[in-house]
Write a structure and sequence with these properties.
Layout: H1 8-14, H2 16-23, E1 31-34, H3 42-48, E2 53-57, H4 60-73, E3 78-82, E4 92-98, H5 107-117, E5 118-129, H6 146-155, E6 158-166, E7 170-177
Parallel strand pairs: 1-2, 1-4, 2-3, 4-5
Antiparallel strand pairs: 5-7, 6-7
């Protein structure tokens, strides 16, 4: 049975292969998908890079799905981690938070973890729902405005380098780690 995260409309709008290319994922990049869910980005990334891909989750049912899918696909470069504390320091050039930030009770702690995981010149891509009513997504009150997210990450020492939309539901912000 397909999970709601694998809704065909959602996956089409997120377009993992094109989005990962646009973010800048290359053949030798380490990648960390934080809040990997069912792995729609992690497994595509694993096919695009020869380096390690960390699929990070905290929920046991998602961890089991990730393990099963990794085995089915035979992707040995995917490491499934329960929580970001299991990802080594400075191990990834790119980290992704796809529809995760609005779920966090302590976003600053997560941003600190992302900075720990990223290489000094690393990139963080944040995908969130537009702060307007759209066909997909959480209630409006839980959504984060792109300007708010940009300010929050800039305050934490990240520099906004690019912004683009992914259909009518999502936006993507790309930040570079400074220092």
């Amino acid at each position: 049975m397909k999970h709601k995260l694998e809704n065909p409309e959602r996956v089409a709008r997120l377009n993992p292969p094109d989005t990962l290319r646009r973010i800048g994922l290359g053949g030798g990049d380490g990648f960390c998908d934080i809040g990997a869910g069912t792995g729609i980005f992690a497994f595509v990334a694993a096919e695009m890079t020869s380096n390690t891909v960390y699929a990070v989750e905290i929920f046991d049912d998602m961890l089991e799905r990730l393990q099963s899918e990794r085995a089915k696909r035979g992707l040995d470069n995917v490491i499934i981690a329960k929580g970001t504390s299991n990802v080594p320091c400075a191990s990834c050039r790119i980290a992704l938070l796809c529809t995760v930030l609005h779920e966090l009770s302590d976003a600053d702690a997560m941003i600190d973890e992302v900075k720990r995981i990223l290489k000094p010149d690393g990139l963080l891509a944040v995908i969130e729902f537009h702060k307007k009513q759209t066909p997909l997504g959480p209630p409006l009150v839980r959504r984060l405005d792109a300007a708010h997210v940009a300010g929050m990450l800039t305050d934490c020492g990240m520099a906004l380098t690019e912004r683009f939309d992914l259909g009518e539901n999502f936006y993507c912000l790309i930040f570079k780690r400074e220092g």
